[in-house]
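Chapter review: from sequence to fold.
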Amino acid sequence: MCEVPKPTITRERLLKKISGSKSFPSVPKIAAPIIQMANDEKTSFTDLAKVIETDSNLTARILKVANSGFYGFRREITSINHALVMLGWNAIKMIALGSTILTRMCAKDRTLFNHSMRVAQIARFIAIEANFYKVEEFAVVGLLHDFGVIILKTYFPDEYRKALQYSIDNGLPIYLGERELLGIDHADVGGWTLAEWDLPENITESVAKHHSYDPENYHARKTALLHVADVFAFAFDYKGPSWEKVPELSAAAIETLGFTNAELKDVAITVMKMKLDPLIV
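The token string follows.
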């Protein structure tokens, strides 16, 4: 392998790029008041619903998401108040961000968009099987987990292309190629950006650490779930380029989730049979 240079991308450099760019404003416009209100203990569902309903496109998008087969609610959700109750504040907050992010992701990298959709679907299923609370949040975390790839492609295209070629030349998963050539990976970048947009720490840590699982991390269980969903999506349904390597599944993550070998096998079989249920946010 060639000599690995010193890290070239830092959190400070990234945030400076984002803050000075029109491609991705510091926080997408409609999401800013939603994030602020959702972080305020005095805000009620009614207060938040009123703000969301000022944007007819976002309102329609949230109701479409809530009523999609992706979630499988038995009764139709007809109001933003009802959607807030069923999906939770954090999921609504992330859909507000996702309405901007995923549109750009779809336009810039359709394969990555489809992979993120699959991770979202698998993450929600595993969250149910592992008895997580607020399972709907996991679907949206899955949608945003590789957002760092889009940030790297947008702000650091030359460096990202070099990392991609380095990964191909050396037979590495892309996140390892990024680390060896850039000193960071796309998970770090996604976590930094979402933290800058005031998403909760349990979400930003899960995104930032899904390729470097550590059971000692504070939000280890949520990160373990995202890691497993990502690997399963690569292994069972990924339609990416032939050179792309499937990330290694962390035994520690499986242990953290508490699955026996038999239970994990059942989960894997179910995931293999899943049909992708499109979720357009």
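Two observations follow directly from the output. The CA atoms of residues 111 and 224 lie 24 Å apart. The first helix runs from residue 11 to 19.
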